[in-house]
């Protein structure tokens, strides 16, 4: 699963333009971020830099994008070179990354579900905490733990999923993106409790799931009927947490 994005690169950019992503996930991230004026933001699993660029353009004073895939970072850096915003990028695995700084906000849009074990998940959350100033916020998008897989209706929204290990307690999922140049990824559909536990152990508090809604622009543009099936079984979930710091053992 680790290097699956090496061959995806630029193809991923097409996903963000689909109405089913632009008016749900993107709107949710923007809403969770709030006012970014002067904030220092670490964008983990930045991929081709979609959110890194959006965050910088929305007023953040400094943005560092980090991704384990060299080819995704190449796409992000090419865009930075073509239209410079001052966003910096690094190649690193979040499970083993160093401390890059003490950021106000860490974004991790579609990252934590790539952890293959609870140890990986805990290592990622620990490293996220190490990169936040006390009181700093983690903002994530994750697969909805309650999402029902293998329903062909989702093809209308340009994706399809299936469980690779039926009968086991934690689902491993394959998702096919049905865009102009199709591609597939695999991930773990962790229960909410796994994220909560890993974040708590890493010193996070106020861990809150944020349901994904359709923006008013999405409702106006596409009409309520377009969203009916999506909202019955949302693929994504937001999650916010605040880093309090690790308590010293006495
Ligand atoms: C679905 S893409 C999301 C990219 C970006 N956040 C966005 O929404 O446009 C997931 C990204 O996570 C990266 N990734 C997966 N596991 C990672 C890890 N352990 N450390 C760093 N990046 C990782 C992949 O290389 C890929 O670029």
Question: In short, what is this structure?
Answer:
The protein has 250 residues and is an alpha/beta fold.
Q: What does the model show?
A:
- It is a single chain.
- The chain is an alpha/beta fold and 250 residues long.
- The protein has a single domain (4-145, 191-243), classed as Rossmann fold (3-Layer(aba) Sandwich), CATH 3.40.50.
- 30% of the residues lie in helices and 28% in strands.
- The protein is built from 7 helices and 10 strands.
- The chain has a 7-stranded mixed beta sheet with strand order 3-2-1-4-5-10-9, with helices on both faces. Strands 6-7-8 form a 3-stranded antiparallel beta sheet, with no helix packed on it.
- The longest helix has 15 residues, at 19-33.
- It is globular, with a radius of gyration of 17 Å.
- Bound molecules: S-adenosylmethionine.
- S-adenosylmethionine is lined by residues 5, 12, 16, 45-47, 50-51, 67-69, 72, 93-95, 109-111, 114.
Q: Uncertain segments of ≥5 residues (pLDDT<50)?
A: none
Total DSSP helices? 7
Strand order of the largest sheet: 3-2-1-4-5-10-9
Q: Catalogue the ligands.
A: S-adenosylmethionine
Output the structural class.
alpha/beta
- Could you tell me the CATH topology label: Rossmann fold
CATH architectural designation: 3-Layer(aba) Sandwich
First CA to last CA: what distance? 40 Å
How many structural domains? Answer: 1
Largest sheet: 7 strands, mixed
What is the tally of beta strands? Answer: 10
Radius of gyration: 17 Å
- Name the helix and strand elements from N-terminus to C-terminus, one letter apiece: HEHEHEEHEEEEHEHHE
